[in-house]
Specification:
Layout: E1 9-12, H1 14-22, H2 27-36, E2 41-45, H3 46-55, H4 65-72, E3 76-77, H5 82-87, H6 98-106, E4 111-113, E5 131-133, H7 135-143
Length: 145
């Protein structure tokens, strides 16, 4: 990544954070490292943090992993406005995912990184203001800059 480029805002979906903590050498782990190193601005919301906390044991991680999240994402955004969430109801497959898109929009994120193929990555061509990408896609895009 060239230094002359501005640092992109990247909203992390819970799936990427959990996978990155579990497998630090994979693509999700690499993006968490980039966020820690300030190569990208890693963003999560309170709702996403709650989802991470709820699923941390299912991912085979312990509560100490929450400390890593805090150092990677020092600023956790408040939950998105209800009106912003509702504005995505027409786009999403599952209403439960509208908050992720709403958070990305409110955070002024250039990218939403997710592993959710069925509900979020499938919207890549429907959502124009935010690029919805997998960790692999984001690494490729940012490595080419």
């Amino acid at each position: 990544m060239g230094k002359e480029q501005s640092i992109p805002n990247v909203l992390f979906n819970a799936s990427v954070v959990l996978t990155g903590l579990k497998s630090p050498m994979g693509g999700s782990g690499k993006l968490l490292q980039w966020a820690k190193q300030k190569k990208i601005t890693g963003i999560i919301s309170e709702v996403i943090l709650d989802e991470i906390r709820r699923n941390i044991n299912k991912a085979g991680l312990n509560k100490k992993s929450i400390n890593k999240i805090v150092t990677t994402f020092p600023k956790v955004l408040p939950a998105p406005k209800k009106s912003t969430v509702i504005s995505f109801y027409e786009v999403v497959i599952d209403y439960g995912d509208a908050h992720v898109l709403a958070s990305a929009l409110e955070a002024d994120a250039q990218f939403l990184v997710t592993l959710d193929k069925k509900h979020l990555l499938s919207l890549q061509n429907k959502v124009k203001r935010i690029k919805i990408v997998s960790p692999k896609q984001l690494i490729k895009i940012l490595s080419e800059k």
